[in-house]
Amino acid sequence: MTAEDLVAFAESLARIAATGGGATALAAQLARRTGVGVLVEDAQWRRLAAAGPAAGVPGTVRDLLAAAAAPTPSIQRLMDGRAGRALSIRAGEAHLGYLSIFPSDPSQQPADGEFDTLEHAMRLTASAIALELARGPAGGRGSPRTFWEQLEARAYHDATAARDDAAARGIVLATHYVAIDIEPEGIGETRVAAARAEVRSLAREAFHSGEADLGALERGASLLFFVPCNREIDAANARTAAALLPRGLAKRAEHLRIGGGVGNRVPLLSLHRSIEQAAAALAIARRIFGTGRVAVYDDLGAYPLLLEGAATPALQEFARRTLAPLRAYDEKHQTELERTLKRYFAARQNVKVAAAELNVHRHTVLYRLRQINEICSCTLDDIHDQLTFRMAVAIDALNG
Amino acid sequence: MHSTDSGYKRPAAKRDALKIAKERNVRFVRLVFADILGVSKNVSIPAGELDAALDGRVTFDGGSIDGFVRGEELDMVLRPDPSTFALYPWASGDGTEARLLCDISMPDGSPFEGCPRTTLKRAVEESRATLPDAAAGLEVEFYLFESHESEYGSTRTADVGSYFDFSANDRGEDARNAIVAALQSMGVAVASAHHEHGPGQHEIDFAAGTLLEAADNLLTLRTIAKHVAARYGLDATFMPKPLEDRAGSGLHVDFRMEAPEAELDDLTLYFVGGLLAHAPAATAICNATVNSYKRLVAAWDAPIYTVWSQRSANALVRVPPARPPSHVEIRSPDPACNPYLALAVLLRAGIDGIACRTLPGDPLTGSTYELSERDRHERGIGTLPKSLRQAIVELDRDRVVRAALGDHVYHAFRDAKLAEYERYRRAVHPWEHRAYLRLY
């Protein structure tokens, strides 16, 4: 792109933003002017927009980034020989998501440096999307929703500014908050809105506080609640109320299932930390414990650490290498050793429970465990071997 | 009729009571009821009047009973509960004596608002929609002291035993066993009995039953223990804190809740939340003497904070770790309380917790005595009242506990207790003589 092209492109982005075009329209403009595939994701890896040739655009770039846990302001190359670039969408210090571009034809490897010429266009688009994300869909200042989004985006530099802004909007703030991320599960597209309304209504009752306003945001399929917790007991009660939510909801609407995560109690300006923890707890709960459960970040022990590192090649390789003998044996002999091992761990090493879940006799489970010991040259009763296998199973699950 | 563990068959109907009275040659029947302070009162009738009594045709002068005064409505009617008919395990001079526990009604047959037993029945009835089968077991602690002719008795103990001790030459143990045997002969289901912390201190645990049975059992125990202990040259006392440097006597209430397993977790949590939220006001009823507050100090595992735990021995509410939770134990009441009123307010407090979905915070681990003020603030932990006066102030503020009592009981109880506190406040105590008489 020449300098003139860039100026024209910047003006077109400004026009789109001024007329209310959101991330989707901005991404489409980038795709139109450059001919590449474009993907926009938020900070929780939820797809906000996709544009241009769809063939080369993956579901997410989460697993294709070398340092997914620590977004940088510079443009990143993708891993695994994948053609494409990703750029953190930022508002000040806050990381709001990723803008990624991909070649129009995934079978053709683009010439080296081709993407680099698009760097300025990417940066301009990311800035425009950042403004849109920070401002929020309600548009402009004045709505309570915008306040919570700004807080999430770390737009306030000190608590006084946040409090003044909240007061101007009629929001009563607490000193501390707990973020709770709730997501309806197993719901068809057509019923998502109704499910969300039901969840919102129940959650508002469950997390109601007489001392300060409850914050709420929608993020893709998720509902984020910011529960005021001036004291530790308020946080404890918020955690308990969140854990009881799936059952309470099932009583109201039998078909409705939810999963969720609960972050730690944090000071107002650190709300983003609690939000990240809630999202991590939700991801862990779903991948490790299955659906229909609200997990508390602090109760997840080592899992958050594993989740942070689960995408790193060393850990992935460790999990693959550890489970490889079982997978090879299962494939060759049509057995279920890997599934048996996972059920056995999930059942807290209770052979009877594992057998019931696998629909086999407990002697079969014992036989399979002996087979696992032989094939992997390990002793599952040994705590060191157990640690190795438990970690491998956990990393494997966390990688989805 | 229904039976208890001892094989005793409780009469379920008037016909059964009359039959037993005839078969066992009963000469006198005591119609027993509790006044508003929980003290047993009785009207004794010849066995020939039992039929009339069971029909509710025995009246008494309510004006002479604490808390029953109500202007011109002085003739109260005793309404015996036939299922409580039991023979006393001792023979009076003229033959066998029996008792019947009674509700009190107005001359027109309507329930008397000031009757503690009726108050508990009402609380149970109002809670039935939420907890249809609420039950409770009681753990009752008491002291056995050497009998003494003095006006107030003595505090000299007959043994030096301690918690769960087994002593072959202990009159206290013999007396306690005799008390248990007497209770069983009257159809009271005793789960266990053992020596407690203090020398001369014992505990008798009742098996879980309906809340009304639990309260009836405590009323029965207080009467039986005094009679039986006297035969061993001992005085039984349910005074909450008879000795300054020994453990006080508590009354632990184990609530058992029947509910589908999936709901029990939530129900238990909310019930605990309600108990903790209303504990300061309920203290006025559960710890109803000025002496009660000398037990509620940071020693001998007495609860002092509104906190729950799974293992801590000195938390106010304990929910032993089990899935689903098996019972909720509240540890602050003492055995000098009016058990009908205490169970009524505790039940309604728990039910209010369920209705309002009151969460109790996280369970505490460790000793509550080590909590700093900052810790308590952060965890939302309150303090139980430190005096009867303070407890009455809390009672005045709590609409749920007051509603559980009803207006009549609330006002009568409050007036009686304020008067008691005032008498105590004006009295000059021996400690003051020791501390000040020579000093100033």
Briefly say what this structure is.
The complex is a heterodimer of chains A (400) and B (440). Helices cover 49% and strands 16% of the residues of chain A.
Structure description:
The complex is a heterodimer of chains A (400) and B (440). With 400 residues, chain A is of the alpha+beta class. Chain A folds into three domains: 133 residues, Beta-Lactamase (2-Layer Sandwich); 128 residues, 2-Layer Sandwich (Alpha-Beta Plaits), CATH 3.30.70.270; 87 residues, Orthogonal Bundle (Arc Repressor Mutant, subunit A), CATH 1.10.10. Helices cover 49% and strands 16% of the residues of chain A. Chain A contains 14 helices and ten strands. In chain A, the strands form two sheets. A five-stranded antiparallel beta sheet of chain A has the order 2-1-5-4-3. In chain A, strands 7-8-6-9-10 form a five-stranded mixed beta sheet. Chain B folds into three domains: 111 residues, Ubiquitin-like (UB roll) (Roll), CATH 3.10.20.70; 196 residues, Creatine Kinase, Chain A, domain 2 (2-Layer Sandwich), CATH 3.30.590.10; 122 residues, Creatine Kinase, Chain A, domain 2. Chain B contains 13 helices and 19 strands. In chain B, the strands form four sheets. In chain B, strands 9, 10, 11, 12, 13, 14, 16, 17 and 18 form a nine-stranded mixed beta sheet that branches. In chain B, strands 3, 4, 5, 6, 7 and 8 form a six-stranded mixed beta sheet that branches. In chain B, strands 1-2 form a two-stranded antiparallel sheet. In chain B, strand 1 and strand 2 form a beta hairpin. In chain B, helix 4 crosses helix 5 and helix 5 packs antiparallel against helix 8. The interface between A and B is medium-sized, with 12 and 15 residues.
Topology:
The complex is a heterodimer of chains A (400) and B (440).
Chain A: H1 3-18, H2 23-34, E1 37-42, E2 47-51, E3 76-77, E4 85-91, E5 94-102, H3 119-135, H4 144-152, H5 159-168, E6 176-185, H6 192-206, E7 215-219, E8 222-228, H7 232-252, E9 257-267, H8 271-289, E10 294-296, H9 303-309, H10 313-333, H11 337-346, H12 351-358, H13 362-376, H14 383-398
Parallel strand pairs in A: 9-10
Antiparallel strand pairs in A: 1-2, 1-5, 3-4, 4-5, 6-8, 6-9, 7-8
Helix pairs in contact in A: 1-2, 1-3, 2-3, 6-7, 10-14, 11-12, 11-13, 12-13
Chain B: E1 2-3, E2 9-10, H1 14-23, E3 26-34, E4 40-46, H2 50-54, E5 58-61, E6 75-80, E7 86-92, E8 95-105, H3 116-127, E9 135-146, H4 171-185, E10 190-195, E11 201-206, E12 209-210, H5 211-231, E13 234-237, E14 251-256, H6 261-286, H7 292-295, E15 305-306, E16 308-309, E17 317-318, E18 328-330, H8 339-356, H9 373-378, E19 382-383, H10 388-397, H11 399-405, H12 407-426, H13 430-436
Parallel strand pairs in B: 3-8, 16-17
Antiparallel strand pairs in B: 1-2, 3-4, 5-6, 6-8, 7-8, 9-11, 9-12, 9-13, 9-14, 10-11, 14-18, 15-19, 17-18
Helix pairs in contact in B: 3-8, 4-5, 5-8, 6-8, 6-10, 8-11
